[in-house]
Amino acid sequence: MENVVVLIVGARPAGLATAACLSKFSIPYVIVERQDCSASPWCKRAYDRLKLHLAKEFCELPHMSYLVDAPTYIPKNTFVKYLDDYIERFNIQPKYLTNVESSTYDNDKKRWSIVAHDMTTCTIVKFRAKFLVVASGENSAENIPMILGLQSFPGDVIHFSSYKSGKSYSGKNVLVVGSGNSGMEISYDLATHGANTSIVIRSPIHVMTKELIRLGMTLAQRLPLNLVDNLLVMSAKFIFGDLSRQGITRPKMGPMTLKSATGKSAVIDVGTVGLIKKGIIKVQGGISKIMGNIVEFQCSKEISFDAIVFATRYKSTANIWLKDGESMLNGNGLPIKEYPNHWKGENGLYCAGLARRGLASIAVDAKNIANDIIYVMGSGSS
């Protein structure tokens, strides 16, 4: 049994940021990670052309800026290098290949009891911690929806976490399911590599340029969101025109308000809309069922495909191993409380990076957690 002050579960950006903030207060901690590297989604699961969708000033972790000559929109490899430098700067030493299997709160000892599996030595390790930080990420497990007949599809079926490039799909009919940033960008990548690409767009989405989102996030620090939303929507209409003919409608709620209220981001166009307007990328509605290689849509249209890429959300797995966490997380492993009060539970339990608000929210979570822990320790609470 290893006694620790703070145990951080997850060495992704949220866990690294929390570790750095704790270091600033000289609070001892242990950070465990089930993968063999930090930020594994970026190292292993990100597609080749991926860049951070927000400008770099909104994507910094606490206490370390990007290099002055870094591009405004950080490429995947540059971000991974930034994380490596961050680990070195704050001397963060994750225990890799350590998978937490259970965590319960001991009311008598007023401590968290954590059981983990050290996959390197094939042994069980146990921790007792005063504070427990869930930083394992909202993107812990792939989430492919249940679709009638999907198991009968003979072609490739992948989650976008396994997608790297459209090179191998040239000349094939490919369906992308999901119209968030990843789905729209993967559709563009497929089309530019010669795939006959269709994308399922079921819900209204805001389509913006990266410059508009940067402007909106800057103005939102000083102006009411409704004013910022009006400016962004008006500008987007001028840039993209009426997209309803292409099957793309806008939500009633403005992009900044929608993000604040639900965590749902606007889609930042990388050229996909232009290809949709030209008919190179075809927009489809919801899927009704799949019959072999034929996909039937809710409008009764039937199309043959060679591959399906699910650009659907991941899901959190924290609720599988975290027991006694009902004060903070729901059955889906996500915070019960609304942002920005989502990060704290009871009995020294915290979460970082589960608010669906990206790196900017991660930085705030990490600072809040470290400040709260130093306050609790200073007040002498048990």
From TrEMBL:
<dbReference type="Pfam" id="PF13738">
    <property type="entry name" value="Pyr_redox_3"/>
</dbReference>
<protein>
    <recommendedName>
        <fullName>indole-3-pyruvate monooxygenase</fullName>
        <ecNumber>1.14.13.168</ecNumber>
    </recommendedName>
</protein>
<comment type="similarity">
    <text>Belongs to the FMO family.</text>
</comment>
<keyword id="KW-0560">Oxidoreductase</keyword>
<dbReference type="GO" id="GO:0004497">
    <property type="term" value="F:monooxygenase activity"/>
</dbReference>
<dbReference type="InterPro" id="IPR036188">
    <property type="entry name" value="FAD/NAD-bd_sf"/>
</dbReference>
<dbReference type="GO" id="GO:0050660">
    <property type="term" value="F:flavin adenine dinucleotide binding"/>
</dbReference>
<dbReference type="InterPro" id="IPR050982">
    <property type="entry name" value="Auxin_biosynth/cation_transpt"/>
</dbReference>
<dbReference type="GO" id="GO:0103075">
    <property type="term" value="F:indole-3-pyruvate monooxygenase activity"/>
</dbReference>
